[in-house]
## 1
Amino acid sequence: MDMKTDLSALFMPRQPPMDIHEAETLMCDWNDDLEAMESFVLEGKRFVRLPDNEVGLFYNNECYVFLCRYWVPGEPEEGENEEEVPDDYKCTVYFWQGRNASNMGWLTFTFSLQKKLEAKFGDKLEVQRTHQQQENLKFMSHFKRRFVIKNGSRSKGTVSTCGEAELFQLRSNGSIIATRCIQIGVTASALNSCFCYILKVPFNSGGVSGIVYVWMGENSDPEDGKLADEIANWLYDLGDYTIQVVGEGEEPENFFWVGIGGQKPYDHVADYMDYSRLFRCSNDKGYFTVSEKCSDFCQDDLSDDDVMILDNGQQVFFWLGRKSSDIEIKLGFKSAQVYVEHMKRKQPDHPRRLLLAMKGRENSRFTKCFHGWGPHKVTAE
C-alpha cells in the first residue's frame, strides 16, 4: 500500500525578504503598543532583575524572562460610545532559553515566577517559551536590532573569556527585525565580505584592555556597519578598550590578523542568503509530509527525528537525522530529487547538485547557511 504524501511545500515560491519600510513600520507599531517591559535572569534557583545595561545581551548558557505589558483598545458594550471605553492591556511573558541552558530553568520558572504572575494578572497573561534563534519577530522588535548572543555564562562571562579574543558576526535573516549579533569561533575563515563583524583583541592574557575592531566587509550594508559600531561601544568598556572601525583591506597587520589567528582565505559573496531554504520531511502526522521552515531558520531546526532538505542556490543537501525512519529516508530522498528537478525548470541558470549531509559531518557549504553554527546539542536518549 502506498503511503499518503504531501509534497506541496516543495513547489511553493521562496518567501521574499520583508521590505525594509514594512519591517520598520511593524517595529514601530509593536513598540508603540508596548507600555512596559520588565527583564529577569535566572541566578541560582531564582529569577532576579536584569540590569538595564544588559537588556539585549544574552548568554547561551542562561535563561531569561521578559514581562511585556501591551496596550489593547477597550471593547465597547452595546450602545456604548467607543471614546468612553477605557483602554485595556494584556501581558505576554517571554521565557528565553539559551541553546546550552538546561531545562531546569523552565521548570524553575513554571513553579515559581509563572505562578506569581498568573496570580497577579489572571487571564490577561500569556506565556511563550522561546529558544535561542527561534524568537518571534514581535519579541525581537523590542530590542531594536541590538540583539547579542554571547557564549558562556553571565557570571563567568567577564572572568573566563576576558583574556581571549572574541569574534561576533552581525546578520539578518529574512527581515531587518531578525537581526542578531552572535559570537562565533575566532578564525579569519569565518569572515565574509557581505557582513560586518566585531573582533575583540586583548593586549595580554589579563585581558583588562585591548582593541575592538568593527570590521566592515566591502559588500556589507553601511547601516549594518553603523549598528555594529553601536553594539561594540555598548559591549565593551571604553575606558579599557579602544573601538576602531576598519574597512575590508585596511586591517592593521599587528593586531587584527594576529588577533584573529592569522590570515586565511574567506568568502567574498553570500549568494546563499538569496536562495537558502530549509524543508522538514516527516511522517509524524501519520502520513509523509514536507514543510518549509521560515526564512529565519537556525541549526536547532534540524530535527534528529526527521530528514531535512537544504537548498543554498548551488547545492541541495539531503540531511539525515540520527533517529529518522527508513520510510522518511526513502521518501525524503525522492522528495529531494523532485525538488532538484523542479528548480532546474524554475531556475535553469542555477542548476542544483544533490548531495548527502550526515549529522555531525556537515561541510562549510552547508553550515554557512546557519548563523552562528556550532557543535550539535547532545540530546538525552
## 2
Amino acid sequence: MAESKQNESDGSIQCLMMGNPLLDISSPVDEAFMKKYDIKPSNAILAEDKHLPMYQELADKDTVQYIGGGSTLNSARVCQWMSQQKDFIGYMGCIGKDKFGQVLQDRTKEAGVNCNFMIDESTPTGTCAVCITDKERSLVANLAAANKFKIDHCSGDKAKKMIESAKLVYTAGFFITVSVDTMLMLGKECQKANKPYAINLSAEFIVSVFKDALLKVFPYVSMVFTNEDESKAFAKANNIQYSDMKELAVKISKMKSELKKPRTVIITQGCDPVVVATGDKVAEYPVSKIAKEKIIDVNGAGDGYVGGYLSQFIQGKDEATCVAAGTYAAQYIIQRAGTKLEGKPAFVAKES
C-alpha cells in the first residue's frame, strides 16, 4: 500500500468525507442491454461476475462518458464547489496504481478537494457502470481497489490531521460494504470530539443486506441522509411502523443513540417536500419543480443534495438554508450529464 502525495496540504480541512472512489462509465442504454445484464431501472447494486463484460460494452459505445465519481466523492466535489473555499473538503478512499486512478486523482485535485488516497498497487481502480434509460439511471459498481481500503490508512499523519481538524465527518452507506471498522472508528472519534458524524443510507440493499453492520454504526450517527425509497426499505428491515414520511423521519431520529444531541434525519422525495426531523421536531420544505425537458440525468442528484446541504451546515447556517442549498445542488446536477460542475454556484445563502 502507498499513500497519495497528490495534495501538499497538511490535512487541515473543514469537512472529511470517506468512501469508495470510482470512475463512472456512463452511457444511455436500451431495454435489451438492461435485460441482458439483469439490471433494474433506478437501482444501485454491486457487480457480480455476470456484470463484468458490461463495462467494456459500455466503453465501446459512442455515447460513453468518463466521470470521476463514486457517491461520496461526488458529494465532496459538490460541497467544495458550493463552498468556494480552499481546503474546505478532504477525502479518503482507495484507488489502484493505474490510468483510471490517475484520472481520479487529477479530477479530485482540479475540483479543489484535498485528497489522501490509499493506493493499492495490485488492484485496478474501481469503476461504476451508469446505465441511463429515459432520464433514470441504474448503477452497477465494481469496487475493485475501493474495496481494499484499510483502517490502518487512518493512522497516517495526514489522515489523523484530517479526522482531527474536520468539523464534520461524512461517509455514504456504500462504504459499509468495505470497512465497517473505519466507520465505527469515525463515529466514536466524532462522539469524543462532540462533532457530527453523518451518513447516507445510499441504497435499498445497504439497509437490508448490511442491516446488522449499519445498526452497529447507527448509535454514533448524528445526521442521516436518505430518500423516500431507502427510508421505506430501512423501516421494513427494522420493523418500523409509520403513517407518513414525517413520522418515519421522527422514528429514525429517535432510534438508539450514544450521542448527547438528537439525531437529524433528512429525507428527500424527488419533487415532493424534503422532510427533516430532529427528535420530535419535524418540518417539511417544498421543492420547486423543474420542467421535464430540462432534466438530463438524475444520476448524482442525491450526492449533490448532500454536498449542497453540508456546504452550509458546516458554516453554521440554519436548517432552511441547508435544505435550500441541497435542493439547489441536486437540481443543478440533474440538468447536466453526470456530476459536472462549472463556474461558480448561483446559490446565495440568505442572511439570518
## 3
Amino acid sequence: STQSTWGFKANLHKNRPMGGRGGVTINVRRGHIFEDSYANISRWARDELMSKLTVRFHGEEGIDAGGVAREWFLLLSREIFNPNYALFISTQKNNSTFQPNPLSGVVNADVHVQYFKFVGRVIGKAIYEGQMLDAYFTRSFYKHILGIPLSIEDMEDIDPLHYKSLKWVLDTDLESDEAKAVEFTFSHEIDRLGQIVVVDLKPDGRNIPVTNENKAEYVQLATEMVMTTNIKQQLNAFLEGFYEVIPSEQIAIFNEAELELLICGAIEFDIDDLERNTEYHGYSASDDQIVWFWQALRSFCHEDRARVLQFATGTSKVPLDGFSHLQGMNGVRRFQIHKAYGDTDRLPQAHTCFNQLDLPQYTSYEMLVDRLLLAVHEGCEGFGFG
C-alpha cells in the first residue's frame, strides 16, 4: 500500500550518511555503461552506496539535477539483460520477464558472481533513490528477495509446460493405466548449451520411480531445482549486493506484486486499447459484469490498474506495441475474460499463462469492485505444498 511504501522509505533513509564530501560521482561512457558502472560501484563501501549519487556521461556537459541519474538507471537496467553478459534469461512465457541464467558462469566464469552482486547493488540503490527501472523479473525471483516460500504456481511463468506436467503428476492417480504409460523418476533433464544432462533430484534419483506416495516430494524437489538450486550461486550473490543497500527485514513488508511496482513503477496504460484487444468466453461485451469490469478499471488509481494487469498476465509491463501484441504461452495471446460459473461471491481467479481472468457472475457493480480489489491486493499466494 502507499502508506507502507512511505513508512518503508522513511525508515530506509534514517541511516543515510550526513555531511562528508556530498556524495559520490560516477563517470560512464554511453557505449560502455555496464562495464564502467561495474568498475565504479563494485568498489564502493556501504557508506558510499547510501550517499547521494551524481552521474556524468563521458564527453557530455550538463549538471545532474536528477535527470541524468534517472537516465543512467534506466539505460543500465536494460543493459543488465543484454544477452552478451548472459546474466539473465527471459521466461518461456514471454520475453519481457527475466530470471537468473543458470549457465551465466559459462560465459563469464571469472566475474559472473561479482556481476550478480553488482546488479543487486544497482537494483537496491534504485529503490533507495526512488528511481524506476525497466527490469521485470519472475514472481519466484521477487519471492527470493522477500524471503517468501515458493509454490508450484510460481513455475507457471517460468516454464508453462513443465508446470503443466508437474500439475498433472499431482492431480493424476499414478497407478492408473493412463499414468503407467509415462515413467517419472526423481531426476530432471537440463539443457546445457545443447547437451541434455540428467540431474538427480535426490541421491540416485534417476533410479527411484515417482509414485502416489512420494509424488508431492518429487514435485517440490523438481520446482526447487528450477527456481532455486540451479541458480543458487547467482541468487546468493545478487541478494548479498541488494541487502547491502536494502536490509532484508525492511523489504520484507512487501509482497511480490508490490515489489515489482516498487522497482518498476505503475506504468499508465491505455484501457481502451486493452478493451479493444480482449476476448470473452461465456460473456459478451454487453453483459453487466463486463460493463462493470471496464467501469471499475477506469475508476481505479493507476497503481490498482497495474495490479489488475499484473494479476491477470503475470507482469505489470505493458507491451511496446500495445495489447494486440500481448505475449502468452505460445506467442501472442490476447487478454481474456472467462465466465466463472458457480458461487457468485468468490474472488476472481487468473491463469497468467493464458492472460486469462475468470470473472464470477457478480450481482452488483459494488461487489465486483470489492472482490476484484481484494483479489489483486491479497490474491498473490498460489498453491502451496501441504
